[in-house]
Amino acid sequence: MKLLNWKDSPLLSVSETNLLLNKLQELSLARQRPHFTEPNLPPQALSSIRLALATNLGRAILDE
Asked: Among candidates 54, 24, 50, 52, which has minimal Cα distance to 39?
């Protein structure tokens, strides 16, 4: 999380950030499947990661 919230510049490009955001969306959809095994993550982990990626995406867009 600290790396994604890096203040100097975006750590990931727009395409890399979009790819990771899409993977998070796939994980959210997979949770609805009957045989999904829940990962052992803190309750707000995915929300925090999503927010950090969105922040990085904004910085990456401004950098281009």
From this structure: 24
Going from N- to C-terminal start, the domains of the chain cover: 15-28+43-63
Instruction: Extract the tokens encoding 44.
Output: 């707000």
Identify the three-state secondary structure at position 62.
helix
User: DSSP letters along 12-61, please?
Assistant: S-HHHHHHHHHHHHHHHHHTTSTTPPPP---TTHHHHHHHHHHHHHHHHH
pLDDT digits (tens, 9 = 90+) for 2-35: 665 667 788 889 999 999 999 999 888 888 888 8
- Amino acid, res. 56: N
